[in-house]
Amino acid sequence: MSPRPQYPNEPDDPRTRAYGQADNDPYRADAYRGDSYGNTSAYAADSYAADSYGGDPYGRDRYADPYPAQAKRARAPRPPRRGPQINTGLFIGGVLATAVVTALAAWLIAWIIRVISQRITETGKFGVWNPVSQDEYWFAVVGALCALLAGALWYVLQLTTPSPDQFFSWIVGLLIAAAVLLPLLLSQEWTTGIGTAIMHLVIGLPILFLISAMGSKSVESYR
Predict the structure, then answer these.
(1) What is the pTM of this model?
(2) What pairs with residue 86 in β-bridges?
(3) CA torsion 148→153→159→162, rounded to 10°?
(4) pLDDT of 9-21, one tens digit each?
(5) Is pLDDT of 4 > 80?
(6) Which of 20, 145, 157, 179 lies at a CB distance of 3.0 to 4.6 Å from 164, suitable for a disulfide?
């Protein structure tokens, strides 16, 4: 009796069962990792490889910012403002206090000069004295306004000049000198010139010293 012919992939064929088990084994390393010749099988090659998600076929980074320069310029912080950091509330309060002090000093000195001139006039030995051209309230108002203007000048110099305190001292000092000398040189009566010069000096000195001292205290830091 001749042997029964064997057909491919027949279950009864021992060779077919061996090879079929080897080919259908889900845990076989060669089925997913490669064959004996080092060739990677279809399962070993990842369909979502680095070329799909990890990079660009031309070598460019897929997740890189397409506009790096524009983004850096947009996110770059603005440079801080140069100059002193001034406590505005403290500065305004100091300027107003200086204006009050200057007004009181001008009113007081003008009143004292007027009282002295009246007493001298009453004696009749030196004629009529009127050394102050205006009354004491006028000098008080002028003194307060000058203090406010000096405070504004100090603030502007702090923001616009490299040595603001020195410039402020020079400007105010020269104005005081001019205010004292002009009445002495231009007044027809020497008593009026002296009285007006004294009043201008009384107004200028508090402004010169108080505004500078108060402004320095109101500066918190320099940048």
Answers:
(1) 0.60
(2) 219
(3) -140
(4) 555 555 555 445 5
(5) no
(6) 157
